[in-house]
Write a structure and sequence with these properties.
706 residues, alpha+beta, Lipocalin, Beta-lactamase, 5 domains, 9-stranded antiparallel β-sheet, elongated
Length: 706
């Protein structure tokens, strides 16, 4: 931007300098936000300044001129002298400078000069906190009515404005049965709003020089790999945390899985389908955040939990925030999770998500989350202590990836995804926000950097009300007319519930009637496995349930749907697999050997292969098949030997073949398609022959041990 000697709207780029002697400083602090104007003839030029003081009395700040598009220009060369404030713009032609005097406690007036020309200026301190308090009057009654309208048991809310927590309330119940009230200090599961915390700690590590967002992940985490070897070498940590690696969610891999380690989660990534090229498409992914947390552990030599606690929770005073639902349950003030079952609120079990922790396992209260908002609004500073460099947190707050959108939604214009934050323009105001949801808990966190405003709302039931209340509170403070926002949402909710009932009634129309399974039920049972998703067991069912599916500790009853397809039955328990369909496939021999499940809706169905009898990989059991067999026609010997946990077939003038166990008890011969063998026993269980199954016939050789 060029600065001319004559005054115009585009002439200024400001840096603020302030000075008072120590006695005056003690009486009058200039910390806070100021609004001002320079009296340019015919068109006053408005500016905004923010000033902060260090413990040693030094001052710093930023200045913005909206008309020029100048935002948060850093302030430097601060001076004070009596009641006068002097500041200039270094490095600009004409040496533009300000010289003002404190005429009232919150008002400065003086002269602006540049190149010998002189104009008046003034600035007044903003009292954003008090204005926000006034704007929120009457919100209590609106929230209390909304809890009833949306069938929500309890809600916690905190609002930060003007560097203060100006509103913190609890509504309804944290425990319905005991009628325990919700408070601002009640602990909730905050879900995916954890992600920004994970990124902030990694950002701090960049300040330490231990890490670079734009280096390949393998530079710091050699074990990292995805399905495509080329992409494995190119993906950066910035790609991982902005959902642009090409990998879709694959959430059922980790959901309820408390036996796997984060290292094992990272190892499984290479077995998961990619559905886009690198940086081609925004695809929300929790697994990549688990990898980012594991990366944090490798960089720090400690757990992700300890890193977040030391770098964030302790300096922010978030003393009760934790990482495990068991820890929350041990706290006397915690919310219990509920679900709405046809209008009735039912308590549900807490869901432990420790392994995926960096993506969403933090538990906190709105009171402590208000401190997190203050830290972000103050660009990485809290209570005068800088925890992260301003440029680093600015990077975390900057959009990195476009998000799918059909355009603006109402007056909200999407911008993209930053690092743990969605970025948009909300009713003309820049907003960063993120939601969170895990069984029985919903979170909405948002802040407006240019308006020094932040809001956090929790509910202890899955509901859109948290986001609605957060937006309503922000609307009041920002002066946005939204009187009908919650009422309109309530009407939409009622219509949606009616449509859902009708949709469920029409579900049976998708079913083909008068079909039967192709096999006996026992043929479907067994253990199935996938290298990425792990093990899935099909066990015999009880009563009218055909079988039970067991996966990641979840047990779900299934009923026959049609052909070889089964459907998850309705249940009062864990509903993960309710109305979830799976299909079985058989091999060329008619043996059921695969179950196909749509674990990730945006990718191809996952194929779990049936595991053979574990005895067929047990050397002690396999020893019974070792020996010499003789072809009755050619009288040529065939030998079966044991190598480790695999049998080997040795035929005259042929390579040695490894025998691979099959689910039907046979063994495939090497990699030959359509060739297999079985071992035959007598009534005493002694192995008496080997039978070969080949495309041209079935042949048997008698055992001929010496």
């Amino acid at each position: 931007m060029r600065i001319a000697r004559s005054f115009s709207i585009s002439m200024l780029l400001l840096a603020l300098l302030v000075q008072f002697p120590p006695a005056a400083l003690a009486e009058t602090r200039f910390d806070g936000k100021w609004s001002g104007q320079i009296d340019v003839p015919g068109n006053p030029l408005e500016f905004n300044a923010e000033i902060t003081s260090g413990d040693d009395g030094t001052m710093s700040g930023t200045l913005s001129i909206p008309a020029q598009g100048l935002t948060d220009a850093e302030l430097e060369d601060l001076e004070r002298e009596g009641n006068r404030i002097r500041f200039r713009i270094p490095g600009i032609p004409g040496d533009p400078s300000f010289d003002g005097e404190l005429v009232e406690a919150d008002t400065v007036e003086g002269k602006f000069t540049q190149g010998g020309a002189e104009l008046s200026f003034s600035m007044a301190r903003e009292d954003a906190a008090e204005e926000a308090r006034v704007a929120l009057k009457g919100l209590d009654a609106e929230i209390e009515q909304a809890l009833e309208d949306f069938n929500v048991p309890g809600l916690g809310i905190a609002v930060v404005a003007g560097d203060e927590v100006i509103y913190a309330r609890g509504f309804g119940y944290r425990d319905i049965d005991e009628e325990l009230p919700m408070t601002p200090d009640t602990l909730f599961a905050i879900g995916s709003t954890t992600k920004a915390m994970t990124n902030t700690v990694l950002g701090m590590l960049t300040d330490d020089g231990d890490f670079d967002w734009d280096e390949p992940v393998r530079t710091f985490l050699p074990a990292f790999a995805v399905e495509d070897p080329v992409l494995s070498n190119r993906i950066t940590a910035r790609d991982m945390v902005t959902h642009r690696t090409g990998m879709p969610r694959h959430d059922l891999l980790w959901y309820n899985n408390n036996d796997i380690t984060r290292a094992e989660l990272v190892e499984r990534l290479k077995h998961l389908e990619l559905t886009a090229d690198l940086r081609q498409r925004f695809q929300y992914n929790n697994l990549m955040y688990a990898a980012a947390g594991y990366l944090t552990e490798q960089l720090t030599g400690t757990t992700w939990e300890d890193a977040v606690r030391a770098r964030l929770f302790e300096p922010l005073g978030m003393t009760r925030s934790n990482f495990r639902v068991e820890d929350s349950q041990a706290d006397p003030n915690h919310a219990r999770p509920y679900r709405d079952n046809d209008g009735e609120l039912e308590e549900i079990p807490f869901r432990s998500i420790d392994r995926i922790g960096p993506a969403g396992a933090v538990n906190s209260s709105v009171s402590e989350m208000a401190r997190w908002l203050q830290f972000n609004l103050d660009r990485g500073q809290f209570d005068g202590e800088r925890l992260i460099e301003p440029s680093t947190i600015d990077d975390l707050h900057t959009s990195q990836m476009a998000v799918p959108s059909s355009g603006s939604v109402g007056s909200t214009v999407p911008v993209g995804y930053a690092m743990g934050w969605f970025v948009n323009v909300y009713e003309g105001h820049r907003r960063l926000s993120h939601g969170g949801g895990i069984d029985g808990f919903t979170t909405s966190v948002m802040f407006f950097p240019d308006d020094d405003l932040g809001v956090v709302v929790f509910t202890n039931v899955p509901s859109s009300l948290g986001n609605l209340v957060a937006r309503t509170a922000a609307d009041r403070v920002l002066g946005i007319d939204s009187d009908d926002r919650i009422a309109e949402a309530r009407d939409r909710r009622e219509r949606a519930l009616a449509i859902q009932d009708e949709a469920e009634e029409r579900l049976d129309a998708q079913r083909t009637t008068d079909t039967s399974p192709s096999h006996a039920m026992a043929d479907y049972t067994g253990l199935y496995a996938h290298p990425g998703y792990g093990e899935l067991e099909i066990a015999p069912g009880a009563g009218d349930r055909d079988f039970e599916l067991r996966y990641n500790g979840i047990e779900a009853a299934f009923q026959h749907w049609h052909y070889d397809v089964w459907n998850g039955a309705e249940t009062d328990g864990d509903q993960t697999f309710e109305n979830f369909k799976i299909a079985f496939r058989s091999n060329f021999d008619g043996v059921i050997d695969t179950v196909v499940a749509p674990m990730e809706p945006t990718a191809a169905p996952i194929e779990f292969e049936k595991r053979p009898d574990p005895r067929l990989s047990d050397p002690d059991y396999l020893q019974r098949f070792v020996g010499r067999y003789s072809d009755p026609v050619t009288e040529r010997d065939q030998r079966v030997a044991l190598s480790g946990d695999r049998l080997q077939l040795i035929l005259p003038r042929q390579p040695v073949y490894t025998l691979h166990p099959r689910v039907d008890g046979r063994f495939n011969i090497g990699e030959l398609q359509g060739f297999s063998v079985s071992f035959d026993t007598d009534e005493n269980g002694n192995v008496v022959s080997i039978t070969y199954y080949q495309p041209n016939g079935v042949f048997t050789s008698e055992r001929a041990d010496e």
